[in-house]
Amino acid sequence: MKTLKVAVIGTGFIGKQHIEAIRRIPGTEIVAVIDNNEKMARSVAEQFFISRYYKDYKELLANTDVDVIHNCTPSAMHYPISKEVIKSGKHVYCEKPLTLNSTESEELVKLAKEYKVAAGANFNYRQNAMVQEMNQRVMNGSIGRLLTVYGEYMQDWMLFDTDYDWRLDPKLGGESRAIADIGSHCFDTIQFICGKRITSVYANLTTVHTVRKKMEKTDGTFSAATGKVLEEIPIRSEDMAYIMVKFEDGMQGLFHVSQVAAGKKNAFKINVCGAASSLEWNQERPDKLWIGHRDSGNEELYVGAQYMTGEAKKYATLPNGHPVGWADALRNGIHNFYDSIQNNNYINQNQNYVTFEDANYIMKIVEACLRSNQSQKWEDVLQ
User: Fold this and answer.
1) What does the alpha-carbon distance between residue 126 and residue 352 come to, in Å, rounded to a whole number?
2) Is pTM, for the whole model, over 0.85?
3) What domains appear along the chain, each with residue ranges and CATH number?
């Protein structure tokens, strides 16, 4: 097995998380970091003992010793950077949303096939051990015929009108915010659990703060702003949304996403109701799975390979009672992506990570939600 030489573009919160996850995977070496803020790039390179840093990612593309590039930049840069990475013949692992629109994401899908590179997107929640267990129980029929699904993803980091982030700028974050940012996780996770696609949506979007105040100081995403008001900025993107969905077999579900829910930090919850039993997983208690019954006592299952089902067992990497969570799921997805490269099977249709093709479909669901909010009726996800 060759050692994969890896570079990470973007050194903010998520870029650092990628660096830490990569270093937990055997057979990898991070050889460079890139950030258009050269001071930041140098600081992160020194902090993580990485030998090289660049201000311009195009300098990196000329280096033949790099196998994989992680694109951890703001959303508007996902398309142009991933496009250049693919054309350089390097494998790419990109943060979500894959692009700002499906026209861009479809082009990336075609380019990845044309240049025969591995192309993965970071929708990490499906890589959690208990989400894998949910998938296995749905697939083996042990919870019976699926009746309905419900999900909610609640945060509070945009609660105040003084909360401002680059995601609010449509040129950087796109037309959708809450749905593209966290609703997309709902869509990917539930489609994975159920093994079927969402084909139509009915969405109602709400913008709580139509004007936000850009403050003098902020420490970045999820941080409070301080100082004087620099500018008042009109806001078009949604703070929250209710989304009804239909799946390809006619099953229905409901999702509630909000970035203005006081006290909710990263509260992602998924409930799947079957004719025999129900399953519920809460991201803030990630190593536990609630199993609901009608005629017997409900259960709470802890992560442990001896209690888990099929392929989910391999995701229980620690002994029972040792929690596995968000960082482990991030690492699992990257590890699965790297395995496909090492085994040279990334061209195959079915992968155990989110491919660009999968992420492209998520982008189309987001766009269907935006159309539905405008038309106030059910809208099909465009194929």
Assistant:
1) 9
2) yes
3) 4-125+333-354 (3.40.50.720), 126-323+363-380 (3.30.360.10)
